[in-house]
Amino acid sequence: MRGFSVYLYDELQIDYMINMKNSGFDRVFTSLHIPEYDLASSWQVFQQLIALCKDLKLQLMVDVSREIMEKLPMSADELSDLGVRGLRLDDGFSIMEIAQYCKRFQVALNASTITVDMVRELQDLKVNFSHIEAWHNYYPRRNTGLDAFFLLNQNTFLHEVHVKVVAFVMGDQQLRGPMYEGLPTLEKHRNSAVFANALELINRYSVDEIMIGDPSISRKAMRQFESYYSEKVMMLTVAFNGDYVPITHCVFTSRPEIARDVIRLQESRSLFYNHQFTGTVCERKIGDITINSQELLRYSGEINLVKQHIPLDAFVLKIGRIIEEDIPLLSLCEGQQKIILTEVTEWI
């Protein structure tokens, strides 16, 4: 599952929600206890959000505190009947209260504060652990996001006790105030690419599900998620040095054996053997796209995506470059990964 955030201080962006649903997102996160906004002014928008999530078949998770639950104009059971599928419980709820909410809701607890003792107490109460998730916070203020080593260690523990882990990445369009510095879980992900950060959380930090923290992401990021999860294709945005239309119309596959310095696109030799490409002979930098010239005989036409700095080779031509925000995806590319190169002009 993948989710995105919708906040209650403005009109609902219905078109955006539909686009996210069509891009493969199936969950919505919202909060009823953001300090800058009061419950009374948010309640009508909240009810509209519940109805829209039901119509779009999106699972709605709501961030609540004990104080907010006491102020709600309806009971928890009525919330469930209305269509709220999950509660993200702020710190302060008792173990007994958590166990009770698990009977009606998917319950998200603070992933950083779950302990062995808490797990044992919930087990003693015969709680169904398929109804419990561990959600890491997002961190609106710069320099306060989590350390990567801490995140991995905590997630390792959470998986040992069979709890699903969820974490946030920041958006790349409208950022949420009042800080407007992004809403990531990991500090290292602040001000960097949405899709690459999401994939890194899953592939390297044992996160099971990602949520977009900020109110919106770009059309390009939506398409990357859709391509990867629906079509199993990693989409890389590139800028070519000339007219390389045939290359952008191909879905390539990385070779099953992973090279240290480059990603080798295995169909490229048969497709472009003996083709005349113009390019530059130069030192190859991380993110460069190269093709082997005819002088390399049976290796002619092979396209490589450069992962490490490499000295120049007289028979290797640089023909383009992956845009900076997509370069982190190179280190996350595994063997036999489907890849498509999309020109940057498509997103302008």
TrEMBL record:
<dbReference type="InterPro" id="IPR029000">
    <property type="entry name" value="Cyclophilin-like_dom_sf"/>
</dbReference>
<dbReference type="InterPro" id="IPR017853">
    <property type="entry name" value="GH"/>
</dbReference>
<feature type="domain" description="6-phospho-N-acetylmuramidase C-terminal">
    <location>
        <begin position="249"/>
        <end position="339"/>
    </location>
</feature>
<protein>
    <submittedName>
        <fullName>DUF871 domain-containing protein</fullName>
    </submittedName>
</protein>
<dbReference type="InterPro" id="IPR043797">
    <property type="entry name" value="MupG_N"/>
</dbReference>
<dbReference type="InterPro" id="IPR013785">
    <property type="entry name" value="Aldolase_TIM"/>
</dbReference>
<dbReference type="Pfam" id="PF05913">
    <property type="entry name" value="MupG_C"/>
</dbReference>
<feature type="domain" description="6-phospho-N-acetylmuramidase N-terminal">
    <location>
        <begin position="3"/>
        <end position="226"/>
    </location>
</feature>
<dbReference type="Pfam" id="PF19200">
    <property type="entry name" value="MupG_N"/>
</dbReference>
<dbReference type="InterPro" id="IPR008589">
    <property type="entry name" value="MupG"/>
</dbReference>
<dbReference type="InterPro" id="IPR043894">
    <property type="entry name" value="MupG_C"/>
</dbReference>
